[in-house]
């Protein structure tokens, strides 16, 4: 399965809320996604429980289930400006056994990674206790699942350089700067509403792909100004400047006019 197409369709359904297959095909056309591809991906997303299908097959409406709600909310939080509260130097440390089943193990690791925890020794995961209460709530979620959680400053000597390397901060920062530059360059001089809509979806998707990997670290671990800060600004500018024309295209598709 093409993950880029899958992500684009997920984003389209998230944007519209509820959509029929013909409408989704119309939305996907400016993105270069064929009707057969849309139908194939829809069937798989429905089979995986990511989208729900309601109504007769030929007139079915599709909407997202709650299966990816945590990811959607996590990305939304990362798109907001980080809190300006200082970090007190404390860390959250999780000690937990990985599941024996490969699929469960990979899902758990992916969840930990998304929540900004990184491996620190065998079966130990670590992240700054910031921003609070968000970080604490994430740790509590794993404690409920059997993890042993410790919050404090006594987790060994953890220097800024070591954390920057652990999180690949410099690489993510450069990538964010690059994507912000692409958004600024490619969002100009678009002719039709369909072109604007397609550019908005594709460029915002590029931004979200990077922002979703933001581990939410305190400011002292980032270069200033950070690439992620620049990317958030570029994303907001894109969404504001393209809003009216993109909505005109959405209205055209939804009403069949």
Give a topology summary:
Blueprint: H1 3-16, E1 19-20, H2 21-28, H3 35-47, E2 51-54, E3 61-64, H4 69-79, E4 91-95, H5 102-114, E5 118-119, E6 124-128, H6 134-144, E7 148-152, H7 160-166, H8 169-186, H9 193-211, H10 227-241, H11 243-255
Helix pairs in contact: 2-3, 8-9, 8-10, 9-10, 9-11
Describe this entry's structure for a reader.
The two termini are about 30 Å apart. Strands 5-6-4-7 form a four-stranded antiparallel sheet, covered by helices on one side. It has a three-stranded antiparallel sheet with strand order 1-3-2. Helix 2 packs across helix 3 (about 35-45) and helix 8 (about 170-185) runs parallel beside helix 10. The protein folds into three domains: about 5-65, Winged helix-like DNA-binding domain superfamily/Winged helix DNA-binding domain (Arc Repressor Mutant, subunit A), CATH 1.10.10.10; about 85-160, Alpha-Beta Plaits, CATH 3.30.70; about 165-255, no CATH class. It has eleven helices and seven strands. The chain is about 55% helix and about 10% strand. Strand 5 (about 120) and strand 6 form a beta hairpin. It is an alpha+beta fold.
């Amino acid at each position: 399965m093409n993950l880029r197409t899958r992500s684009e369709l997920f984003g389209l359904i998230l944007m519209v809320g509820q959509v029929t297959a013909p409408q989704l095909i119309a939305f996907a056309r400016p993105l270069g996604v064929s009707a057969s591809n849309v139908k194939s991906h829809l069937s798989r997303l429905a089979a995986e429980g990511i989208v729900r299908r309601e109504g007769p097959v030929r007139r079915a409406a599709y909407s997202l289930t709650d299966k990816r709600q945590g990811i959607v909310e996590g990305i939304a939080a990362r798109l907001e400006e980080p809190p300006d509260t200082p970090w007190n130097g404390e860390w959250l440390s999780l000690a937990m056994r990985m599941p024996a089943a490969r699929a469960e193990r990979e899902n758990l690791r992916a969840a930990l990674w998304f929540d900004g925890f990184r491996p620190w020794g065998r079966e130990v995961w670590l992240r700054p206790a910031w921003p609070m209460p968000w970080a604490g709530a994430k740790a509590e979620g794993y404690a409920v699942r059997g993890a042993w959680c410790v919050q404090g400053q006594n987790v060994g000597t953890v220097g800024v350089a070591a954390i920057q390397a652990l999180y690949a901060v410099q690489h993510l920062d450069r990538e964010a700067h690059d994507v912000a530059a692409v958004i600024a360059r490619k969002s100009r001089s678009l002719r039709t509403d369909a072109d604007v809509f397609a550019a908005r979806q594709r460029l915002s998707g590029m931004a979200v792909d990077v922002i979703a990997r933001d581990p939410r670290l305190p400011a002292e671990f980032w270069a200033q100004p950070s690439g992620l800060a620049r990317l958030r600004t570029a994303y907001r500018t894109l969404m504001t400047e393209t809003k009216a024309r993109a909505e005109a295209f959405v209205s055209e598709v939804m009403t069949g006019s």
